[in-house]
Design goal:
The protein is α/β, with parallel strands linked by helices and 164 residues long. It has a single domain, classed as Dihydrofolate Reductase, subunit A (3-Layer(aba) Sandwich). Helix content is 19%, strand content 37%. An eight-stranded mixed β-sheet has the order 6-5-4-7-1-8-11-10, sandwiched between helices. Strand 4, helix 2 and strand 5 form a beta-alpha-beta unit. The protein is globular.
Length: 164
């Protein structure tokens, strides 16, 4: 059975980002994201891919774009033109990740089996949002709270959901 996990950090109002940039800096969340996704295929939209200075190490990037001429010259990167194409590329994987952005999360929600959500305990103005989690379809399996500190400007919680 394949696990397709959406992984994101979203504010209380589901804000993800503004102008293709993150709204906060949470080093522990970056470390957790790296640990969870390393060694796996990660599916993302073109804008999310372009927000990275370079591809993330030790992960195969599957980039979704409507632009038929879009090309990436990096190794370990594949360009596709629909979520369905991306899902075909991970169907044999035991575990794969959807890493954003907002439009991709909304499209992928119906396909996901799990969600790893870092809930940032604040609200922000944003142009990209995580979909609402319907608690009749998703069961909260784990919750771990982290208060703000000298390295983290906001309180946040790691939430692990599984489709019911």
């Amino acid at each position: 059975m394949q696990t397709l996990t959406m992984i994101a950090a979203a504010a209380e109002n589901n804000a993800l980002g503004l102008n293709n940039d993150l709204l906060w800096h949470l080093p522990d969340d970056f470390k957790r994201f790296k640990n969870i996704t390393s060694g796996h295929k990660i599916i993302m939209g073109r804008k999310t891919f372009e927000s990275f200075p370079k591809p993330l190490p030790n992960r195969h990037h599957i980039i979704i774009t409507r632009d038929k001429n879009y090309a990436v010259t990096y190794d370990h990167c594949t360009v596709v033109h629909s979520l369905e194409e991306a899902l075909q590329l991970v169907k044999e994987e035991a575990l794969a990740f959807i890493i954003g952005g907002g439009e991709i999360y909304h499209l992928a929600l119906k396909h996901a089996t799990n969600i790893e959500l870092t809930r940032v305990h604040a609200s922000f103005e944003a142009d990209a949002h995580f979909p609402e989690i319907n608690t009749s379809e998703w069961k909260l399996l784990a919750e771990e709270y982290h208060p703000k500190d000298d390295r983290h400007q906001y309180d946040f919680s790691y939430l692990t959901y599984e489709r019911v």
